[in-house]
C-alpha cells in the first residue's frame, strides 16, 4: 500500500518543474494563518495612515510580512524561535544594507560577505535558515530602496512589525498553551480513521506516517523547553505511540487478507472525535479470531483508555525516555553542521557567486531597479526550499502572472489609502500560496511587494513591468551561474537517503521483537521517519529537469519494496504480541544483517545480489519483503 501508487500524488509532481506541490492538491486554505498575515501587514499601514504618515508604516509592514511567513505552525515555542529569528535577521539586514547604500562597488563585496555568513549560518537549523534569509533580503532591500528612515530607526520599525506579528501568532498561548500539540495529535487520529475506513487505499499508511511524524516533531519540539516532568505532553506522546500501534495492527490485518470489522471503523471514528474534545470514546467488545485482530482490538481499547484518562484527570506520572543533551553539546552539534561537509561549501560558493554577480549588475545600472534581481537570487537559492531549477522556473512564471495582476491593480486603484485593501488581500493569500507551491506564492507576493513599493515611490503601473524584467534577470543568473556549472546540483540525494532508510529499518528489525529493549519505540519511530524523509527528497527530486528526474523515478519500485519491509516488520510485531509465535533471535539477526548489507551496497554504489530462498516461520512475511527488496534492487541501475 505504498504512496507511490497513488494517482493524485503522482499528479502533484508531474510535470514537477511546473507544480512542485508541497502538499496534496486537495489541501484547503487555512484561514487562521491567512487572517494573521493580513493583519500583520495591513494593521501597521492603517496605524501609520491614521497618524498621517503612511510611508512610515512600510517597514513595520515588511517586518510583519517576514514574521508571518516564518510562522509555519508547530508548538508555540518553535513558532517563537522562528519568528524571532526572522525579525532579528531582517533588522540586522536593514542596518547592513543601509550602510552599503552609498558604498559603490564596495557594496558588491559587502553583499558577498553577507552571503557567506548567511550560507554558513543557514545550515545550523530551521531558525538559522529563516533568520539568514531575512538578513539577505533586507540587506538587498535597504541598499536599493531609498527609505527615509536611518539605519537604527528603520531596524526598530522593522522589529516593531515583527513583534506585532509575533503577538498575533502567540495570542492563544496564555489560554491554551498545548493547543498546537493537541491539534497535531487530533490530526493523526483523523488520518487513522481514514485508514481504518479504507485500509486498501493507495498511500493510506504513508499519509498517516507523514502526519504522525509532524505530530512527534511538534510535541517533542515543545517538550525540549520543559524544565521537568510534564504529564500533559507525556500523555500526548502516549497517544501518538498508541496510534502507531493501531496503524500497525491494521496493516497486519490487511496482510491476513481481512478488512477491519465495522465496529473497528466506528471505534476509529469515535477516537478521532474524542481526542480533540477530551472525552472518553466507547471501547471495543469483539472476540478476536486471529492475532492481528487481537492486536487491533487491544490497541484501539488502549487508545480509548488513554483519552478517558485525560478526561478524568487521572494521568500517571512519568516521562518518555529523552536523551539529555547539554547546551555545550547542542552548540557543538551546530558547529559541526556549519563547518563540515562538502555540500555546505558548495552551497556557500554558489550563493556567494550569484549574489556577487547580481550586486555587480546593480552597480552597472543596466536595470532600473536591479536590487530586485539580487533579491530574486537570494530567494531562489535557499537550500531547504526544494529544487533550485523548479524554484527558478516557478519564480519566473509566478512573477509574470503577478506582474500582470499588479499592473491591473495599479491602473485601477488610485495612489493613496485605497491601495491598502488589495495589500491586505494579497497578504492573506501568501500563506495559501506557500502551502501549495513556490509559483503560486510568487504570484501573490509580486503584486504585494509592488504595491508596498508604490507607497514609497509612487511609480505606478510601470513598477510591475520593471519587477518582471528584474526578476527574470535574477532567475537567469541562478540558472546560468548557480545551477548549470555545478554538476553536483543535478543529482538529487535519493540514493544516500534510501540507504539511510534501509539502515534505520535494519536497526528497528534487530530490536523489534525484544519487548525489554528500552529504545524499541524510538527505533520504530526513526524507521518510519526515515521513510517519510525519503518520500520528501524523492518528491523534490522529480521536480528537476527530465535528465535528472528520469533517473530519480527509477527509485519508485525500490521505495515501494522498502515500505513493504517496514510494514511487514511492524505488522509481525503486532501479531507476536497477541498470540502469534515469536521469531527466533537468529532469524531476526539474519534479517537485520541482510538489510545492513543492502544499505551498504546502495550507499557504496555496488550491485545488490538477488534474493535467496525465503525462510519460513514467524518471520516469513518480513523475509519475503526483504527478498522482494533485493530482487527489485538487483535489477536497479
From TrEMBL:
Domain (Integral membrane bound transporter) ranges: 359-480
Residues that span the membrane, as ranges: 37-59, 80-97, 103-121, 128-146, 152-173, 400-432, 438-456, 468-486
Annotated region described as Disordered, given as residue ranges: 599-619
Keyword Lyase: no
Localization per record: Cell membrane
InterPro entries, per database record: Memb_transporter_dom
Signal peptide: none
Pfam family membership, one: FUSC_2
Membrane topology: Multi-pass membrane protein
Predominant subcellular localization, coarse grouping: membrane
One GO cellular component, as annotated: plasma membrane
Entry keywords, A to Z: Cell membrane, Membrane, Transmembrane, Transmembrane helix
Membership in a protein family: Belongs to the YccS/YhfK family.
Protein's UniProt name: Putative membrane protein YccC
Organism field: Sphaerisporangium krabiense
Amino acid at each position: 500500500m505504498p504512496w507511490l501508487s497513488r494517482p493524485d500524488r503522482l499528479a502533484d509532481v508531474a510535470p514537477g518543474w511546473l507544480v512542485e506541490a508541497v502538499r496534496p492538491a486537495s489541501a484547503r486554505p487555512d484561514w487562521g494563518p491567512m487572517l494573521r498575515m493580513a493583519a500583520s501587514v495591513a494593521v501597521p499601514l492603517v496605524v501609520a495612515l491614521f497618524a498621517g504618515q503612511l510611508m512610515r508604516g512600510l517597514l513595520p509592514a515588511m517586518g510583519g510580512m517576514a514574521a508571518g511567513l516564518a510562522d509555519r505552525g508547530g508548538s508555540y515555542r518553535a513558532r517563537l524561535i522562528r519568528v524571532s529569528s526572522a525579525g532579528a535577521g531582517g533588522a540586522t539586514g536593514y542596518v547592513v544594507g543601509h550602510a552599503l547604500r552609498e558604498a559603490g562597488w564596495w557594496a558588491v563585496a559587502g553583499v558577498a560577505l553577507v552571503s557567506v555568513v548567511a550560507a554558513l549560518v543557514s545550515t545550523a537549523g530551521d531558525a538559522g535558515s529563516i533568520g539568514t534569509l531575512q538578513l539577505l533580503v533586507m540587506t538587498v532591500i535597504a541598499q536599493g530602496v531609498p527609505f527615509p528612515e536611518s539605519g537604527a530607526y528603520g531596524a526598530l520599525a522593522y522589529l516593531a512589525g515583527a513583534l506585532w506579528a509575533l503577538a498575533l501568532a502567540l495570542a492563544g498561548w496564555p489560554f491554551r498553551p498545548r493547543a498546537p500539540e493537541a491539534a497535531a495529535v487530533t490530526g493523526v487520529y483523523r488520518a487513522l480513521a481514514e485508514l481504518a475506513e479504507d485500509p486498501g487505499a493507495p498511500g493510506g499508511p504513508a499519509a498517516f506516517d507523514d502526519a504522525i511524524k509532524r505530530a512527534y516533531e511538534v510535541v517533542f519540539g515543545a517538550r525540549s523547553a520543559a524544565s521537568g516532568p510534564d504529564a500533559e505532553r507525556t500523555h500526548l506522546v502516549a497517544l501518538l505511540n498508541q496510534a502507531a500501534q493501531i496503524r500497525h495492527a491494521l496493516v497486519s490485518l490487511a496482510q491476513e487478507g481481512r478488512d477491519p470489522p465495522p465496529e473497528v471503523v466506528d471505534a476509529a471514528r469515535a477516537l478521532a472525535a474524542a481526542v480533540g474534545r477530551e472525552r472518553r470514546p466507547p471501547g471495543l467488545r469483539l472476540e478476536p479470531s486471529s492475532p492481528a485482530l487481537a492486536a487491533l482490538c487491544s490497541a484501539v481499547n488502549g487508545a480509548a483508555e488513554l483519552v478517558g484518562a485525560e478526561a478524568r484527570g487521572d494521568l500517571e506520572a512519568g516521562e518518555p525516555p529523552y536523551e539529555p543533551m547539554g547546551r555545550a553539546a547542542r552548540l557543538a552539534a551546530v558547529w559541526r553542521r556549519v563547518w563540515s561537509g562538502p555540500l555546505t561549501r558548495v552551497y556557500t560558493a554558489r550563493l556567494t557567486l550569484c549574489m556577487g554577480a547580481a550586486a555587480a549588475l546593480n552597480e552597472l545600472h543596466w536595470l532600473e531597479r536591479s536590487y530586485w534581481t539580487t533579491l530574486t537570487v537570494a530567494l531562489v537559492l535557499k537550500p531547504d526550499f526544494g529544487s533550485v531549477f523548479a524554484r527558478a522556473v516557478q519564480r519566473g512564471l509566478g512573477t509574470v502572472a503577478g506582474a500582470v495582476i499588479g499592473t491591473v491593480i495599479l491602473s485601477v486603484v488610485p495612489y493613496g489609502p485605497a491601495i491598502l485593501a488589495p495589500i491586505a488581500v494579497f497578504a492573506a493569500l501568501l500563506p495559501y500560496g506557500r502551502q501549495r507551491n513556490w509559483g503560486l506564492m510568487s504570484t501573490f507576493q509580486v503584486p504585494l511587494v509592488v504595491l508596498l513599493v508604490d507607497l514609497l515611490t509612487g511609480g505606478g503601473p510601470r513598477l510591475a513591468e520593471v519587477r518582471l524584467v528584474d526578476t527574470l534577470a535574477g532567475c537567469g543568473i541562478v540558472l546560468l551561474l548557480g545551477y548549470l556549472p555545478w554538476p553536483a546540483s543535478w543529482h538529487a540525494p535519493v540514493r544516500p537517503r534510501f540507504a539511510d532508510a534501509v539502515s534505520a529499518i535494519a536497526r528497528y528489525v534487530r530490536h523489534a521483537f525484544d519487548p525489554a529493549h528500552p529504545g524499541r519505540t524510538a527505533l520504530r519511530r526513526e524507521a518510519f521517519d526515515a521513510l517519510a524523509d525519503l518520500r520528501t527528497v524523492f518528491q523534490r527530486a522529480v521536480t528537476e529537469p527530465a535528465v535528472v528526474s528520469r533517473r530519480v523515478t527509477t527509485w519508485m519500485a525500490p521505495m515501494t519494496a522498502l515500505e513493504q519491509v517496514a510494514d511487514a516488520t511492524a505488522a509481525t510485531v503486532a501479531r507476536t504480541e497477541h498470540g502469534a509465535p515469536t521469531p527466533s533471535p537468529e532469524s531476526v539477526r539474519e534479517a537485520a544483517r541482510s538489510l545492513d548489507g543492502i544499505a551498504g551496497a546502495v550507499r557504496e554504489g555496488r550491485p545488490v545480489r538477488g534474493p535467496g530462498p525465503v525462510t519460513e516461520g514467524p518471520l516469513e512475511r518480513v523475509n519475503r519483503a526483504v527478498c522482494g527488496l533485493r530482487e527489485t534492487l538487483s535489477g536497479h541501475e
